[in-house]
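Sample intake sheet
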Amino acid sequence: MSDEASSKPSAARRRAGRPSTSVLTRERILDVAFELADTRGGDFSVAAIARSLGVQPPAIYNYFANKTDIVAGMRGEIGRRIDSSVFERLPWYEAMLPWARSYLEAMGSHPGIIAILATLPVDSEPESVLEYEMIVASFRRSGYPEHRIVPALVAIESFVIGSALDSLTPEDNLSPAGSPELAPQLLAAEANARQRAGRAGLTMARSIFEFGLEALVAGLRAAGDAEQSA
């Protein structure tokens, strides 16, 4: 038997051994966590992630300390989809509109995780801390009252998160069509709003979001200006 022939089984055995690269990564773990959250909400476990990946739970702990750490990673992934760079070049009241829209779209892509992400402390994810620092700096450059910056930011963020949840409800969620005699004015107002949204090519939820966002930002700006001039 030639040397070339005798070397082939050995090479085959080496290829069948341990893979040269890990089959598990942070990204794969987070992808599965999002998939589980989309169907179970925040009620998923490290064990469930491990089962989905075909590994034992200790393998997950090589990348994340616990479920809270995984959720922080998920928040970081959502944060990377939100364009915060606008706050570096625009006043906060202009930058807030595209930022909130990208925030809504990012949250809406994984609605099952909205509630748990909303209650996660900001310091669990460094990228989120840097994002908020950039936003606060934009408020300060505009001379917004210092003690009103965080309340204004939280008000807008709460509105975005609520709007992301509202986008999951039926289009006619506020319509009393089943008992019109009880609320004829509400019935007419709701129908009119839905027709207006349709003419603008928007869903009811998105039309409400756009109106509410612009009104909220305008109101917060006016309140800040009034306090500055007082």
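Comment: The two ends are 97 Å apart (CA to CA). Residues 180 and 187 are 6 Å apart (CA to CA).
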